[in-house]
Design goal:
With about 375 residues, the protein is mainly beta. The chain contains 4 helices and 25 strands. Strand 7 and strand 8 form a beta hairpin. The protein is globular, with a radius of gyration of 21 Å. The mean pLDDT is about 90.
Length: about 375
């Protein structure tokens, strides 16, 4: 029989071995030893007259694109405060037209109301419902209001194209909205959204990341009630829907995969495919013509973690993937763009329209590129 001291030593050594193994695996997971090579699909340039940050966008079939800018969360530290002060960043929505690329972006006017404070607006995910019967666009935007104790909520705006204004209509809130990332509409008053963290505190989130806890989910709102339709996801980030409405695509950022769900008639979801990417996908855009997907990604995990905490002087690489789709399933992947972080740092969203590539970032530039390679 082993002595008590020997048993304690065995337990301690075992725990240390398990911990060391997890740390080593985590270092590989976040790309401590990874290296990539810079390449563009054609000439690229920075889009002017837009503040730093273009976290998400939504492109309509006619090429009109709504861009969210000014993302930040309450748990972010003093480095982010300084970044926002230096660049005079505030929550803004911009409009970009792929048919008028040389005109750049136009800022949309947003006024405060009794239900909405434009001064504390910090947009994240965005989705646009085109109501052809009513002749207007409904713009849904995830908002992290920078004031305590206001929790995450989803804002609903009506777009006025003549005045280039977003008129606030209403907002959605509740316990189902934990730490919301992205949204995709299914109607004028219904949508899917992702919670990409379970904890709102910085410490809780770091534990989720290091321990790789798959505690995030996809929630559906039917106009009256919220219900979880997919869970067990390792950091549910971007969400998109196929043009025919049959499939939902979810980027599991820390899981380094895209999850494909079949959409049921009652809007519940059935997991159809898990496609590994070996990179950290952020947002997903659907090509309305081909059905293919474009994903803005963070190929080196430890660099994006540092960048999120302190963006100034800590660039993070940018990567764009094109994912071929057939019958809802992803069949192949092409790396369309890679930059070490000089032209664009920490890419989040990307899409191609008429052989023009648009790439957004968390705190850095908005970039367009000609696409001179086969798609």
């Amino acid at each position: 029989m082993l002595s008590r001291g020997t048993c304690v030593k065995i337990v301690v050594v075992s725990l240390l071995a398990v911990t060391a193994q997890h740390v080593a695996r985590f270092m590989v997971h976040v790309g401590m030893f990874s290296h990539f090579f810079k390449h563009y699909p054609g000439p690229c340039k920075k889009v002017e007259n837009i503040q730093p940050g273009s976290e998400d966008f939504y492109t309509l079939p006619d090429g009109l694109t709504f861009i969210s800018s000014g993302f930040r969360e309450q748990c972010m530290g003093p480095s982010i405060d300084e970044h926002f002060r230096q660049h005079k960043i505030k929550g803004r929505i911009y409009l970009f037209d792929f048919k008028k690329v040389n005109e750049g972006v136009k800022e949309l006017k947003i006024a405060s109301t009794e239900k909405f404070n434009a001064d504390t607006f910090h947009p994240h995910g965005i989705s646009v419902w085109e109501d052809k019967k009513a002749g207007h666009h409904v713009v849904f935007v995830v908002n992290h209001p920078h004031e305590q104790p206001v929790a995450d909520r989803i804002e609903k705006f009506i777009f006025d194209p003549d005045k280039l204004e977003l008129n606030h209509h209403s907002y959605y809130s509740g316990e189902a909205l934990k730490v919301v990332n992205n949204i995709h509409h299914t109607g004028e008053n219904s949508f899917y959204f992702t919670n990409y963290h379970y904890h709102s505190s910085k410490t809780g989130r770091l534990l989720e990341i290091f321990l790789e806890l798959a505690w995030t989910n996809v929630v559906y709102y039917d106009g009256k009630d919220y219900r979880t339709v997919a869970d067990g996801i390792l950091s549910a980030n971007g969400i998109a829907m196929s043009s025919d409405g049959r499939y939902i695509y979810v980027a599991a950022a820390l899981g380094r995969e895209i999850r494909v769900y079949r959409r049921n008639p009652d809007n519940s979801l059935r997991l159809q495919q898990i496609f590994p990417l070996h990179t950290f996908p952020d947002n997903i855009q659907v090509d309305h013509k081909t059905g293919d997907l474009y994903a803005g990604c963070h190929p080196i995990g430890h660099k994006i973690l540092v960048h999120l905490d302190s963006p100034m002087g800590n660039p993070s690489p940018s990567q764009v993937l094109q994912l071929k789709v057939q019958d809802g399933n992803i069949t192949s992947v092409q790396e369309l763009f890679y930059d070490h972080g000089e032209l664009i740092s920490a890419s989040t969203s990307a899409t191609v329209y008429n052989r023009k590539l648009l790439i957004g970032s968390i705190f850095h530039n908005l970039v367009t590129c000609d696409v001179d390679v086969p798609l």
